[in-house]
């Protein structure tokens, strides 16, 4: 990597950022494509002075993570429709007029991960476990995939209702159902009734306090179902290990991180993403973090 007066500056903003693997991915992509650029981590707690810094330092693109995905929108020149539907921005890039544009590649990254794994989403019954930001972005992205139905399952009924409302505003006519997994829920969810199960909660995540837990009803998984757990630390969660033993087709969580990053790179540079180089760097960084 060379650093000189012509080096373009990219990065990620959020707080904290000790967990981020994005610099490893993007710097590997710049190197693979011979781009004179560097991608750095900017651990900022507030967005005070953000727009001034963006233009003063001529930042060419940014990844955005918690807690800034929502509030960064008001600091941008334009926000793309998909990010407006989701209500959050995870990517800032410069357009052909040098304007700062916000978009969201989280949900489309997850959809891409499923498609790259050979999963056809058209006509499928989809179950999303969880009602957070990741569930929202994935649900809205699925609206353009020709799915048959979408069911949201979690404890946060208000969050699930909000996701359903946002999905309906996209203009698709899919059946969107809600299943609340509370102590008052009388009928357990039959997880075997779905073609694709997407797990978006912290269950199974290293350091979450739920490392050994799996979603309620997971014992009902059946052979040939598609199971995607977006948790990427550890690489294979307890939920995915159970799914594999039951003959399900599994998709690893780091694939969502990889493909949302690849889409960011293409927005940053208008060049095809070197996905293999990015994946190698990501996996190496994840292994190093474990040691």
Report the helical percentage: 25-40%
**Number of helical elements:** 9
Q: What would you call the structural class?
A: alpha/beta
Strand content: 15-25%
Sheet with most strands: 6 strands, mixed
* Count of DSSP strands: 12
C-alpha Rg (nearest Å): 19 Å
CATH C-level class of the largest domain is Alpha Beta
Low-confidence stretches at least 5 residues in length (pLDDT < 50)? none
- In spatial order, strands of the major sheet run 2-1-3-5-6-4
Summarize the structure.
The chain is of the alpha/beta class and 291 residues long. It is built from nine helices and twelve strands.
What does this structure look like?
- By secondary structure, the chain is an alpha/beta fold.
- The protein has two domains: 8-104 and 257-290, Leucine Dehydrogenase, chain A, domain 1 (Rossmann fold); 107-252, NAD(P)-binding Rossmann-like Domain (Rossmann fold, 3-Layer(aba) Sandwich).
- It is built from nine helices and twelve strands.
- It has a six-stranded mixed beta sheet. Strands 9-8-7-10-11-12 form a six-stranded parallel beta sheet, with helices on both faces.
- Strand 7, helix 5 (133-142) and strand 8 (149-154) form a beta-alpha-beta unit.
- Helix 4 packs across helix 5 and helix 8 (254-269) crosses helix 9.
- The longest helix has 16 residues, at 254-269.
- The radius of gyration is 19 Å and the shape is globular.
- The two termini are 25 Å apart.
- The mean pLDDT is 93.
């Amino acid at each position: 990597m060379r650093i000189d007066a012509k080096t373009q500056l990219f990065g990620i903003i959020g707080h904290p950022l000790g967990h981020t693997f994005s610099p490893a991915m993007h710097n590997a992509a710049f190197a693979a494509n011979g781009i004179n650029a560097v991608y750095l981590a900017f651990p900022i707690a507030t967005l005070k002075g953000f727009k001034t810094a963006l233009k003063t330092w001529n930042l060419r693109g940014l990844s955005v993570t918690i807690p800034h995905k929502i509030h960064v929108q008001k600091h941008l020149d334009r926000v793309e429709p998909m990010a407006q539907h989701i209500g959050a921005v995870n990517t800032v890039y410069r357009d052909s007029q040098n304007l700062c544009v916000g978009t969201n590649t989280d949900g489309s990254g997850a959809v891409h991960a499923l498609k790259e794994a050979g999963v056809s989403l058209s006509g499928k019954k989809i179950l999303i476990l969880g009602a957070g930001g990741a569930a929202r972005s994935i649900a809205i992205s699925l609206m353009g995939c020709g799915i048959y139905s979408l069911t949201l399952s979690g404890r946060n009924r208000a969050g699930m209702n909000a996701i359903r409302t946002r999905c309906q505003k996209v203009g698709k006519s899919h059946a969107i159902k809600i299943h609340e997994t509370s102590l008052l829920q009388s009928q357990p969810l039959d997880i075997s009734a779905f073609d694709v199960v997407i797990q978006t909660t912290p269950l199974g995540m290293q350091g979450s306090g739920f490392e050994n837990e799996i979603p309620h009803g997971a014992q009902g998984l059946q052979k040939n179902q598609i199971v995607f757990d977006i948790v990427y630390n550890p690489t294979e969660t307890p939920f995915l290990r159970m799914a594999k033993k039951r003959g399900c087709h599994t998709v690893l969580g780091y694939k969502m991180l990889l493909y949302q990053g690849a889409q960011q790179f293409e927005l940053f540079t208008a060049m095809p993403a070197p996905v293999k180089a990015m994946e190698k760097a990501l996996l190496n960084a994840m292994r190093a973090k474990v040691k």
